[in-house]
């Protein structure tokens, strides 16, 4: 495919020359993926690393008769070397592999000493913060490591803790678990990749604040700066949503954002405006270049300019939380500034590969971060497709061409990011071109306005005027986004592409990119094959949806939600009150329906106790006590679902039912579930608890 017999540069050779760091990045990423999905042990990674280093040293010392190194063997060794580095970096970064991990040491009744890692954030019913374990008392002190969420009930008042506070908690730690509901966000894996494995809802009399504090000065400076920024925004900008968007736009503080407003920004394709990204850092970079331009006239001034700009960019990156997309931009702008000082330039492809390698080396699990994926996809898409799209319509008028260029950037960025958006969010924002055309320039003006607000914050009257103007602009932007979101054709929702389908789409885009970049019409054939592969996978998926038969007992705290599925039709058994059903549909049922290709409007019933059949299987839903009976004939059922916290015993159930499997949903009390599971163990009866094991899904 990439071979050429005429001596000219082939696409692959050209790419390797233009971005040689891809040769390192590719095996490194493969190593991370194999280490996670293949469960490769650390010992294997260490042995492979040492073996490849030994082989490379041997190859470097030994030359053939033509005095050339054995190129292909060296290439294989380098591939295996960085493959092993990727495997090891993933294993080492995973907190559960550390010998001091709290999850492998903590036992019931043990107290643990913690250090608070961030200021308290206020949620609807609780105060929340992140803490790091340092010591377990067994009763002797034992070193521990691991992060956990701490929750304090608002009814007990705001606790007097902040960054660096040390406290001792004498309360059982709860492992973080995902809901297990089909199609739901895997929060357990998300938290694990951040090193967070436990959570605890702290009671007032179960913790002790120590007199000593810990923490580093840089983190304290970041939190103090963030607090000062938030204080100025809240003082001079009016309106709840306006303040929330201003906080998110400037420093990525999202705790005050309304959920519905976030969804509106997402549906209209401009959620990147309120999520700190490379765009924000790029705007700041432009401002800094303009301000420091006088320093570029001398060699010493260039270095002062470079150090000042990079210091500010990195400080801002960490101030906003150090997200993957921001760190990517900071690395790339640092390389650009450094190259400018040294008088050298680098390929954007190579810069992307270098920044990705170092980010993943520090944090391998950024590879699963949606922001990381979208950031690199957007930049790569703009680099590849912007020029070909712009050339489709050449405008002689300068202003019309500027408007066209703005739209070209938006269109180009969507090409490689759209498959990711469909895969992760299952939707296409149909009005992204219009909303980006308005929101991007407007948000840029607001961002510059916020920077100006801080510059004049010392003068109350000027600051109030600036804040009033920003409030109006923010309100206009929010109203425009909400209006566009309410249009019936604003978003195409409910699209389901699995991983293989998404890969086939990217293969098609890859071959089309080579065709456009290197003028290789032959690439249209593999692009067509990739398209056929995608359509074939989609057809197989549709066939599987038509033939499926499932029972799902959802894991939803305090709510009954059961679905019987046959083909693409679904029967919902649970609370049918309007507010409960809407909440369940939006956050629990809808993701499952997209995952399984189900109808948008399931049939509903609130019958509290019923018997159902799907195919050759029977299901019984029970939410009341079983009356005493002398009937000889028992009810045959494959699955019996106990819901509504009834008073009964498993032994009593077996007098009325012949049951193969018992399911206890999340409407039952933990005490009763524990009792019922103990009875099932004694009777050697199969059972499940959704609260402990996640959603119960049965296929037949």
Report on this model:
Among the domains are: 82 residues; 114 residues, OB fold (Dihydrolipoamide Acetyltransferase, E2P) (Beta Barrel), CATH 2.40.50; 46 residues; 151 residues, no CATH class. The protein has 22 helices and 21 strands. With 700 residues, the chain is α+β, with helices and mostly antiparallel strands. The strands form 4 sheets. Strands 1, 2, 3, 4, 5, 6, 7, 8 and 9 form a 9-stranded mixed beta sheet that branches. A 5-stranded mixed beta sheet has the order 15-14-13-12-21, with no helix packed on it. A 5-stranded mixed beta sheet has the order 16-17-18-19-20. Strand 12 and strand 13 form a beta hairpin.
State the main characteristics:
single chain; 700 residues; alpha+beta; OB fold (Dihydrolipoamide Acetyltransferase, E2P); nine-stranded mixed sheet; five-stranded mixed sheet; 22 helices; 53% helix
Low-pLDDT runs: 1-9
Q: How far from one another are the termini?
A: 44 Å
**Topology, number of strands:** 21
Average pLDDT works out at 85
Number of H/I helices:
22
What structural category do the secondary elements indicate? alpha+beta
Tell me the β content: 15-25%
What characterizes the major β-sheet? 9 strands, mixed
Please state the overall shape, judged from the principal axes of the Cα atoms. globular
Radius of gyration: 29 Å
Helical coverage, percent range: 40-55%
| Quaternary structure classification | single chain
